């Protein structure tokens, strides 16, 4: 995000002379690198952007390239007295879910901002910008008043009872809105982040549109911050599909960080710094980044501000704490966090693994964060500092991101590409209504809800329409994959799988000199050497880490102590009762929304409840005042479980 002047950081998106002059050289270098790696990253980039055209809702433009799609959802919003035509369907259904759509646009925009030059060299920048604008045009419609945001059209329950092409939809198209009486800070703030990031995409080519997006972004951020509340408590129909498990603190920080990027206005950076404790920005240490939990993204953005030297003395200490968390995320992805509990698990074939349902979303989002962070670290002459005392060099981060992308493209034990249409072997039965039913242009006969199931959903064989470029959910923890239409956990693609991937693919398509546009540096041949280091487990780094990081690690405000309080023998096994005490060591602040990680737990636990990101204390114990403790117990015929803090807010 190079500074564009006037206090805004912009991206030069015109067909600049420098890009034109360097096009032939860049493409030749990309071809050589792709051939050496065994993958055509430029082709994969083109396909991954093309996929978004299959997800379009509304009246399709004349340049629509996915020819089997047609207009749909042309009456969206009419019953509510507002025009909500447009936007994206999130996955294989026909619902427009606001939260994942906004995250998709934020990540597409960030991809363009970091690697727009590389997209231009591949001839894909215009298509990427079109994809961003298709989303932001819809967000402008969905935000008709400063404190009103329409956050969903359609509902998952009725939609999932029906298997229809979007062109034939007979399901509910009710629109659901947020307002001061029905707040939704996650959704409003994520939409603010998307529009702020997108304003940078259009800053040079369409400044009037960029200003319009920025105005909406500022209003939405103010709305999200002033009227705080969980969006899925207001739009309850979203809860079974896109529930907010991490709360809205991460989205508020995320939106403020993007508004600082877009405006350069110090009060947005003040917000990120002053709310680091209260909103969890420096309290959460999590190795997962996606549409729900944005903390790693916030931490990387804050670290980038620090690396650029734009933070100012007043916030340097806080931003260094953010950077510690960003480093920890990077180290956890590489298996260098110092603890098996916080390292990201990997399949036998080497893919990062978090969950059985659409695991690939976390692989693509992490790969983008690693690549972008690596380029900024390299420009500052730094590496990610890991708790184990080792460092993760920028070249190692990029090499690992490349390994994950290569896995998706087919370098895996099955030899299967998980991008539809790329490679010789790829999913043929993607879980997708439009792709799995004959195109309305081929056979305009109406397909009813149940006819869609009986004639098309359960049909054996490949989909009649190619969902080109779609990245599906991917394999399980053992690298197994079943290409079956009803296997939605593995064969359904989503927009937020592809959005961060386009940035990484552009980076890789540019070859060894493909660093981010903000600095234009090159990692030269170090990337190749680092690939060998990643495979061999070499812990060395060729670049210096931050000289002060070793002294920056502060005593954590939350202490954990566990001990065995009883033991007995039963049927030849010795059981122990373990008591775990969690203490707020802060002198004057209260811990809120405490999440605890537990592994190697083989028995029953009392006093905490399982949650999306670990364990939490019961709802009646909302907070832990300064100096106070809480406890839970578990019983097992094994050594003590591993217990650690995943995240918290400190007010």
Describe this structure in a few short sentences:
The protein has helices at residues 17-37, 41-54, 98-121, 125-142, 156-160, 185-201, 207-226, 231-234, 249-263, 266-274, 295-308, 313-334, 360-379, 394-409, 433-436, 449-457, 488-491, 495-509, 526-536, 549-552, and strands spanning 3-5, 8-9, 96-97, 149-153, 175-178, 345-346, 352-353, 384-385, 391-392, 558-570, 573-584, 591-599, 605-606, 609-611, 614-616, 623-624, 629-636, 642-650. It is an alpha+beta fold.
Give an overview of the whole structure.
This protein has about 650 residues and is α+β, with helices and mostly antiparallel strands. The relative contact order is 0.12. A hairpin with a 2-residue loop joins strand 1 and strand 2 (about 10). It has helices at about 15-35, 40-55, 100-120, 125-140, 155-160, 185-200, 205-225, 230-235, 250-265, 265-275, 295-310, 315-335, 360-380, 395-410, 435, 450-455, 490, 495-510, 525-535, 550, and strands at about 5, 10, 95, 150-155, 175-180, 345, 350-355, 385, 390, 560-570, 575-585, 590-600, 605, 610, 615, 625, 630-635, 640-650. Mean pLDDT is about 90; it is low at about 1-35 and about 520-555. A 4-stranded antiparallel sheet has the order 10-11-17-13, with no helix packed on it. It contains 20 helices and 18 strands. Helix 3 runs antiparallel to helix 4 (about 125-140).
